[in-house]
Amino acid sequence: MTASRGLTLHLGPGFRLGHRDSCRGYAMSHANRAFLPAAGLDFLLPLYDPMVKLLGADRARKKLFDQASVQPHHRVLDVGCGTGTFAVAIKGWMPTVQVVGIDPDSKALARSRRKAQRADVSIRFDQGFANALPYSDGSFDRVFSSLMFHHIPHDAKLATMLEVRRVLKPGGSLHLVDFEQDGSRSHNPLARWLHSSERMQDNNPQQILNWMSEAGFLEPRIVDSDRPIFGRIAYFAAR
Fold first, then answer.
1. Could you say which of 123, 163, 186, 225 would form a disulfide bridge with 116 (CB–CB 3.0 to 4.6 Å)?
2. CA gap 118, 191 in Å, rounded
3. Burial of 124 by CB count in 10 Å (0-12 exposed, 13-18 middle, 19+ buried)?
4. What is the mean pLDDT of residues 149-174?
5. Is the model's pTM score more than 0.90?
6. Distant-in-sequence, close-in-space partners of 158: CB < 8 Å, separation ≥ 6
């Protein structure tokens, strides 16, 4: 694997800080599968949360949560939970909700667990991949995907949607926020830089809606869009 020399910062399972590989990004291995670690490079992981906050992801996540109409008795899944910021925030917004987070990055998960302990909230954090969720059918009322879907390889995106559909309860719903592909053509140099990843090339809203439909979701739709400083993002929902 040959790495390019340019730095990139991705926002997904949290933000990705570090060098971008010319093909797949800096990849770590879990069960013989590659993934992008939460900060691109392990030594940059402490920068992850401050950068997320600085660039406005907290606001985007709160907006996503509000769109989901989560109820106090619900069980929710945060796919690609990274360092657990969103999962911990959900418990703060609605303490009675059962929250589960999943991510392939063991170091990010360790940070997640410490964060939950400091906040004195009970959250289950599991290590695993979005396209092979280790949960029974119909386990969750809501599934969230926060600025991470563009990190999934093209050939795993439909499989991820199928897995999310499988673990949702009848009447449950998926709520997803991610970048729009057109950020690479933005006049904002930061947006162009952040959207330069090869994995962004098929991350256009219509394609995401198509994957939702192919996976069997009903009423896949774009709920809203926004343009924070890191480029245009779209909010999706499906049931």
1. 123
2. 33
3. middle
4. 95
5. no
6. 211, 214, 215
